[in-house]
Design brief:
Helices cover 48% and strands 7% of the residues. By secondary structure, the protein is mainly alpha-helical. The chain folds into 2 domains: 3-72, no CATH class; 78-241, no CATH class. Helix 2 (24-37) links the parallel strand 1 and strand 2 (44-48).
Amino acid sequence: MTNKFIVQYGLINIDVIYVCSNKDRYQASYSSRAREFLSKKVPVVRPFYKNTIMDQDDSFKNLYSFNIFSQIANIEYIIGETLNLKTISVHHRWLKKALVNYINEMENCIIKDKIIPEPKSTLVPWYLLDEEYRNDNRSVVDCINIILRTTDQLKDLAYYRHPGNADINYAFLESNSIADQLTEMEHRRWMATKYLYGWEYGQKRNEALKEHEFLQDYYKLDESTKDCDRNQIKNIKEIIQF
């Protein structure tokens, strides 16, 4: 890290410094180096792989060190597939509602003698779901913790894998301004998963070309489209406890 690097990438008004290295011995030196060039008031977060936190400097304020295996990537989360199990539940929750809507749509088409539309490719149980859409569901579960921590509702990392066990105050969902911010976050999350799989903006959804009309800034969407993201946020309590 040099002054030239900081100027080149506009690293000013930094909110937080996250130090990431696969070697514990570098974590302390990297955080010290960052403090030399950036404000000492900026919080520094640094994970370690061993239980012994190296070179803990009590003179640093806003310094947060933790063991990555005990608090984030423990055996339960990796081998027990906690994320996958929760993700499957989230998909099946959506599938249950989507099937009811599709059956009603078919019945209306039959009554009105119209062509029954082709069902979405995601209207299948988890084991038949394409990996792209599985990862989108995993992203939903991961983002729940981000939403809760953004609203100051998940302070204890002990509940990171099971947020439903935490004492969460869902009153933040009643605030229109907060709900709108979280809704935009949800839309950005969805766009990110699409971009990772090569999707681009198109005037009409086309799975073969990987084009989607909703891949644009949130403020450009119509209200009915925004409602899809709003419902995802409004149902966060149900999703957590499902």
